[in-house]
């Protein structure tokens, strides 16, 4: 029995409990983002749980279902019910589960880098920069920032993914 307790304690040390199973004092997925110097708005509202290996930065964030929404004047985004990748200070890499529609193509967002007051989103073949101010609030699945209860007006965005940087 004591070996089982040691194994469980070791596991919990390496991996945080999913937020839905942890006590109310545990950090949310959004506060974890902030601890790595990212704004909460790069993750839509509705994360039901997450896990993070703090030694490697490997993470998973879970929604009840896929999450789709449009951003004002520009892109359609699609988050699968599970997104994953690696997080470190100012950098998200090897992302899976997040797509953006550019013109007629759905492209995977594979990396996000914070550089000062800008966020760079890479789809592999090209990237686009946005002001960090555009990510101060999390969008809502279904309606993005155009929800009736949203208090934050998004900036009109051009399509920086269309031209290579």
From TrEMBL:
Record has Disulfide bond as a keyword: no
Gene3D superfamilies: At5g01610-like (2.30.240.10)
Keywords, alphabetical: Signal
Residues annotated as signal peptide: 1-22
Name this protein carries in UniProt: DUF538 domain-containing protein
Entry keyword annotation includes Ribonucleoprotein: no
Cross-referenced SUPFAM superfamilies: At5g01610-like
